[in-house]
Structure formats: C-alpha cells, structure tokens
Write a structure and sequence with these properties.
Blueprint (H helix, E strand, L loop, with lengths): L1 H28 E5 L15 H10 L4 E3 L5 E3 L2 E6 L5 E6 L21 H12 L21 E5 L2 E5 L7 H4 L10 H7 L13 E7 L3 E6 L13 E5 L4 H9 L5 E3 L6 H4 L14 E4 L2 E10 L13 H9 L3 H9 L4 E2 L24 H10 L11 E5 L4 H12 L5 E5 L2 H10 L4 E7 L6 H4 L18 H12 L3 H18 L2 E8 L2 E4 L2 E2 L15 E2 H5 L1
Parallel strand pairs: 1-10, 15-16
Antiparallel strand pairs: 2-3, 4-5, 5-7, 6-7, 8-9, 9-10, 11-19, 12-19, 13-17, 13-18, 14-18, 20-21
Helix pairs in contact: 8-10, 14-15
Length: about 550
C-alpha cells in the first residue's frame, strides 16, 4: 500500500513537472497577443485594414521597409537608384532571400526570390480579376504599358508616368509584399489562408475567428531575427477581456483604449496606473492619424452657416482640445494646435504652421463679425457621428453652446455615415485620416480638388492649394518640399474646412518581460525584434 502511494506521488510530481515545463517553454518562446478584430485574409493583396496588416507583416517582406523613424530601409532590395527625372526606379535585390518551404514548390527545398517574383506580385495588384483594394498604389502612377521589368534575376525596374516623390515610401506598404506565383496558383482562392512569404515567421495554423499560429523562419535573411520561436494571435473582440487576460499573464500584449477600463489602466495624466505598473507596461508614441470634424463646403445653399469662413474659424477657437483629451482620453493624444498633418512626420512644424488654440473670446468676436452676435439668428447645426465618438462630439457641442451655437448630434452606423459622407448627404461629420505611407502628401490628398470623395469628403477647392500640392509631388529636395507642405497647412488653417481635434497616439500594453516592441508612428506591430527579457537571461 505504501509502495502504491509512493508510485502515485512520483507520477503526480512527474506530470506536474511536465505541465510546468510546457508552460515555461511556451512563455519563453511564444509571443501571444490579441487583436480585437478578426483577420479576413492573409493575402497581401488584401492588406487593407490593421487587423490584416499586422499578420501579413509577420509573414512577408517587400522591396523596402520603414524603420521606427519612418526612413526607408532595404528589405528584399539591398539598394536602389532613382533616375534624375524621377521616372525610373531600379532596385538591386538580395540573393539570399528565400520563400518559406511549402508543398507548392514541389521538390525545391529553398526557393530563392527573384525579380520575376516582384514583377508578378506588382502586376497581380493591378489585375482586375484579383480586384485588390491596393491597386491604387500603382494606378495612375506607373506607365500603362509594361511598368515593371526584370532585366536580371537580381534587378527590378519600375517606370512611372510622372514624378511622384512619396513613391518609394509607398512600396513599404504591405500591399507591395512579394508572393510566389507557384503558391497563388497552387492554392487558388485558398491562398488567403495558406500564405507563403519570406518574412520572419511562417504560417502554421489558422482557426478563423479564434487563433492564428506562426512559427519562426529559421532561414530568415536578416541576421539574428526573429528572437522568439513563435507567435500566437487571439481574436477577443472585447478589449476589456483582453485587458483582463493580460492582467492574468495569459497573453503578452494588446492595444487600444476603451472607457470600460481606461481609468483602471492609466491615470488622467496619461501614464500607467501605479497599481498596474508592476505587471504591465504602457507604450505611447505618435500615431499618424488626424482626428477631425469635417465640413462639406458644397452642402446646401448660401444660408448654410458652415459655408462662412468666420463661423468655421469660430468653431475651431471654441474647443478646449487639451481638456477634451484629459477628460475623455486620459491624455492619450496631442491637441491639434497646428495643421492637418500630425506629429510624427518629418515635415511637421508647429511654428511654421500655427493653428487654433482655445480662445472663446475670439470665437465670440468671429460670431459677431459673421452677423450672429452670441449666436442670435444662427440656425441649428447637425453633427453626424457614430456611437464610438458620441462622447467626443458631445464635449465639443457643449462648449460651442456656451458661445451661442445650437448643435444637434445624430448617430449613424460607421458604414452608413461613410456612405452619406461619400454621397455628400451630410454637412458636418466626425472623421479621421490615417496615413497610408510616410509622407505628408497622404494627408494633403484629402483636400486636393481633383480628388473625389473619398478622400475629399469636404469638397474643398482652392487653386493655390492645388498648385502647391502638384509642385510638392515633383520636388526632390526634402527641405523645399516640406516648405510647400507647411504652406498648404497654413492655407487649411486659414480656410478651416475641418475642425482640427487631435493628433493621435498609440496605446500599447505589454506584460513586463516583453522587450523590443517598436515605437513607430504607423502603429505597425513589428514582431521580429520582440523577446522576453527574463527568458533571455536564462
């Protein structure tokens, strides 16, 4: 009996040790994070939203990539040259980049990437049968006939119709990832769930709406990377649940803020709450997203008060942006006291483009000059938004009402509101604009008169703005181009087609041992450099 008890006890210790060991191994090698929105495709041609972009970045590479300061750096291309006229881009490719091993390659164990693969990938973006939302990257920019050339296995050439200075940065977008023709043809419509790339991690398993599992690419071309053996992505739609899972050390990372837990995690001053600081780290940095309230300048007749510049300027002076951020977002974000381009871009210069600060007296003076002293005779203004931003719009409305404005807030579903904005059915609306590529042109395109809605939801038309915009596209000298951008921002501040609200910031939360999370203004989760400090010490 005693022997039997000892045997059971020994077996208990053995299995307990095995379970403990398994847990330790997982914590050492797997970076587990949560995305609150499901992935819809792992095909780079459909890398439209952040939920797809993050995972695709783990799996693929493009010709170039961005560092955390948004400088263009080599990736599959080791170097490049741009012709003097800005029309020809020539890339020299690395010869040691391999696609992940996959059955689509039959007996080829190490399938090297060549210029033909880049040519195929870029032509695929333009293929009408693919119907990629990323086709705009090349449409209207590259020549119509044979824009992509592969004169040698390690040489790739792109021909543009006209100079477009931000083009190189655009190639860093996940749309421009390199894919193998063999995989696309082998998997057909299932390529979306059978990705084959060159990235630091390779595909292992995807349980849609639940989890995605990736494993380390042992043949990755960037030396010493990646630093963990695998990635697990969970899809918990409720961020409060993700926050609780991080608190319990069941996941390593999640992003985003919601009112249900914001005050538990960070203080009103925008730092991690002292009670959480021993377990959780808060990473905040500029995010190239401008939050604003847009005004449709072509809506209604001349009696529409929003068509009057002084009314639009009064609305801009009538918001205490700093108080709004402290009250509603615990100081995650920066008041938009300059132009439309946010902090984080090299061309941003608040002194060169001074914008609106909170000045209720000046707002009242502008109201009087516009013919509406203390708001007398001013018709009701309807502000359209979604439920997610009702608190922000309510804050602004209450401040404006103190000046004499009459504001009514109407809610709509996100897709419905966007459709109304596109069709020009609303006069005043809440919106945001997130950078597509690391150049301020991505923001100014929102106001270029030749652009439809989207992106020009405000129907802004200004001949001088358009002249500056077109000149900036052709300018190769960064200092001169930035000066043109700042003139464009000053025009937007003067004409006020939008109410500038705030420049966004990332809100990333990680467990204490996690290191190597990049701070970049495009809010891209780069996993290849992530590791766990306590594990590395062991």
């Amino acid at each position: 009996m005693q022997f039997r008890f000892c045997l059971i006890y020994i077996l208990f210790l053995f299995f307990t040790a095995c379970q403990s060991s398994q847990k330790t191994d997982d914590s050492r090698t797997v970076f587990h994070y949560n995305q609150h929105k499901n992935i819809t495709s792992l095909d780079p041609a459909f890398a439209r939203a952040q939920n797809n972009i993050w995972a695709i970045d783990h799996l693929y590479n493009g010709l170039v990539q961005l560092d955390d300061s948004l400088n263009v750096r080599p990736a599959i291309a080791r170097s490049w040259q741009v012709s003097q006229d800005g029309l020809t881009y020539t890339f020299a490719l690395r010869k040691d980049v391999y696609f992940h091993r996959d059955p689509c390659f039959e007996d080829k164990e190490n399938r090297v990437v060549t210029a033909e693969d880049v040519k195929y990938s870029f032509n695929r973006l333009l293929d009408k049968k693919v119907n990629s939302p990323g086709s705009w990257v090349f449409k209207g920019k590259v020549v119509e006939e044979n824009p992509f050339h592969a004169p040698a296995p390690d040489t790739f050439v792109i021909k543009l119709r006209s100079p477009f200075r931000p083009f190189l940065g655009m190639l860093s977008m996940q749309y421009c990832s390199v894919v193998p023709k063999e995989a696309v043809e082998f998997y057909g419509s299932d390529f979306r769930s059978n990705p084959v790339g060159t990235g630091p991690f390779k595909f292992k398993r995807w349980i849609e709406n639940q989890s995605l599992f990736l494993s380390k690419n042992d043949h990755y071309f960037e030396a010493g990377l990646p630093k963990v053996d695998g990635i697990r992505i969970s899809f918990m739609g409720d961020r409060k649940t993700a926050y609780l899972e991080l608190s319990r050390e069941n996941i390593d990372f999640f992003s985003g803020l919601e009112s249900s837990y914001i005050n538990e995690l960070i203080t009103k001053d925008g730092v991690i709450h002292p009670a959480k600081a021993n377990k959780i780290q808060f990473i905040k940095s500029p995010y190239l997203n401008s939050e604003y309230l847009g005004i449709n300048l072509s809506f209604g007749d001349d009696d529409n008060p929003l068509k009057r510049k002084k009314i639009r300027q009064a609305l801009n002076y009538g918001i205490d942006r700093a108080l709004m951020l402290k009250t509603l977002r615990n100081n995650v974000g920066v008041p938009a006291n300059s132009g439309f381009t946010p902090i984080g871009l090299p061309s941003f210069d608040a002194t060169a483009a001074p914008g609106y600060t909170y000045d209720p007296d000046r707002a009242r003076n502008l109201l009087r000059e516009a013919g509406f002293p203390n708001g007398e005779g001013l018709p009701e203004i309807i502000l359209h938004t979604t439920a997610d931003y009702e608190d922000l719009c309510t804050f602004a409305a209450k401040q404006w009402e103190n000046l004499g404005f009459k504001i009514k807030i109407e809610l709509a579903e996100s897709a419905t509101l966007r459709q109304m904005m596109t069709k020009g059915q609303v006069a005043f609306f809440r919106a945001s604009w997130i950078m597509d590529y690391p150049d301020a042109e991505s923001f100014f395109t929102v106001f270029y008169a030749k652009n439809p809605a989207p992106p020009n939801y405000t129907r802004f038309k200004n001949a001088e703005f358009d002249r500056l915009y077109e000149a900036a596209l052709k300018e190769n000298d960064d200092a001169v181009r930035y000066g043109l951008y700042q003139k464009m921002d000053r025009l937007l501040i003067e004409e006020a087609p939008v109410i500038f609200l705030f420049y966004d910031q990332t809100a990333l939360f990680a467990s204490k041992p996690v290191r190597g999370i990049s701070r970049n203004a495009i809010n891209l989760l780069k996993t290849k450099g992530i590791y766990k400090e306590d594990v590395m010490k062991k």
